[in-house]
Every structure is written in structure tokens, then in C-alpha cells.
Amino acid sequence: MSARRRSSAIALAGAVFACGLWLAGCDDMPGKPKPGPEVVDPATVVDFKTLYGQNCAGCHGENGQHGAAIALNSPEYLALVDDATLVNVTANGYKNGLMPGFAKRASGMLTDEQIDAIVHGIRATWGKGNVLAGENPPPYAAGKAGDVEHGGQVYATACANCHGAKGTEGERGSILNGSYLALMNPQSLRTIVIVGRPEWGMPDWRNDVKGHPLTDADVTDVVAWMQAQMPQYPGQPYQQVTPTNHASAPSNGRGEKF
Fold it and tell me: What's the distance, Cα to Cα, between the start and end of the chain in Å?
């Protein structure tokens, strides 16, 4: 090999060695993340405990009870509602109710696979088979409009003992408060009347009146009566008044009334 070629080869080898040293030094550059576990893509999480804790426990309670919303650890509730309904409610929420939709198609954050994981996990964790076998519970959803007048009679017989004649002074709390009724859609009220809130001492449809379970019509009608008690302006302690005397109406400073 000529002296010129030998010199070129040595120069090339030195350049390669220097480049290698430079690349190795990149591992210690300031701000570069150290090797370790990568952040998990939220859309790939299908563990029930994780999904429930992040999305459901805030309203339904850490262990499916003692939350503001219906107890999901109620075997009666899980026997009353089928998987298709649970999937639909979890994915799309309740219209005019507090339950939001968690599916991405409903502006939520969960995939269909994650919705299924939550529903199957709820039933596997808290379901106890068909605990309503031999019973005749009212169906989950109402099949017709309720009779408000008869609903008032049902309330007086089955509910007033705990919630008071006016629904505001009973020992079990106010269920006719206008703000409360505005937040509860008919299906939410119906579900509570049927399965109760056992963690709070509220009986289910079989035990409101001992020996006289509520019928489908009873539940439908009492829910209709409760809805009829909602004031026109929920949450306002005063009557809405529209000014009729234009002379006394406020002005915007240019003589224009508004």
C-alpha cells in the first residue's frame, strides 16, 4: 500500500472512531431521558380495577357503593339490567341526567374494548347470578307514561314514611327538592325506586310496604308524580318575574329599554 493510501486509511479510521465517541457521548447529553419503562398508551389499558378507579369510582364509590350515584355492587341492580344496557349507559350516558358518556364516539376517552372491560368487570366482581329468580321485579325501563294522580297515592303509601309527606322533611332526606329533581332523569329515579339504595338504608321495591311489593305501574306512576313536582325554575328560591311596566324597566343610557 502506498504511503498516500495508508495515510487516507488511517484518517478514515480516526474519523470513524471519533464519530463513534461522539455518538456514545450523546447518551449523556443533558435532558435526554434515561432508559426505563415507557408511558403506557391510555387506550391500551383494559384492566378493570384501573379503568373503574379512573372513570367510575368518583360517582359510584371505590367499591361500587357509598357514592353519589347508584350502587354498582348491588346484585339486584345487576340482575335487573342486562349487559347491552350497561354497555349503552357506560358508552353514551343518560340524556338529561348526570351520567356522562365515556366512549370516544360520545366525546369520552374510552374505546369500545375498554367499555366492555368495565361492564364485564362490574358483573364479574359484584354480580351474584340471578338473585331475582322467583321474584317479579318491575322491568328496568317503563313501558308507558305514568299516571300522576295514582303516583301521588303510591308516594303517600310507600315513600312518605321515610321522606315525609312533602318529600322534604323525612328522616331519609329530601327527594322532592327542585334541584335534585332537575338533576335526575326519569330512568335514574325509576332505577332507585326499584333496587333502592341499600348502602343508605333505602329498601327496594319489595320492602317499601311490607308484604306488598310495588308493581310496574306503581313504579312508573310514582316516578311520574315526582317529576311533576319539579318547579319551573329549579334551584331558584324565588318566583321568576318578568317586568311589564316599561317605564320602570332599566335603560342602557340611550333611552332604550331592555
Answer: 100
Pick the CATH number of 42-126 from 3.30.870.10, 3.40.718.10, 1.10.760.10, 1.20.1440.230: 1.10.760.10
Residue type for position 175: I
Q: Report the predicted TM-score, pTM, of the whole model to 2 decimal places.
A: 0.73
Q: Is pLDDT above 60 for 66?
A: yes
What is the rounded CA–CA span in Å between residue 164 and residue 7? Answer: 102
Q: Is 63 exposed, middle or buried (0-12, 13-18, 19+ CB in 10 A)?
A: middle
**Closest to 119 (Cα-Cα) out of 86, 78, 76, 159:** 86
Tens digits of residue pLDDT in 23-60? 555 556 677 767 766 778 888 899 999 999 999 999 99
Residue 4 reports pLDDT greater than 80: no
What's phi and psi for 110, nearest 5 deg? -105, 145
Cell of 112: 369500545
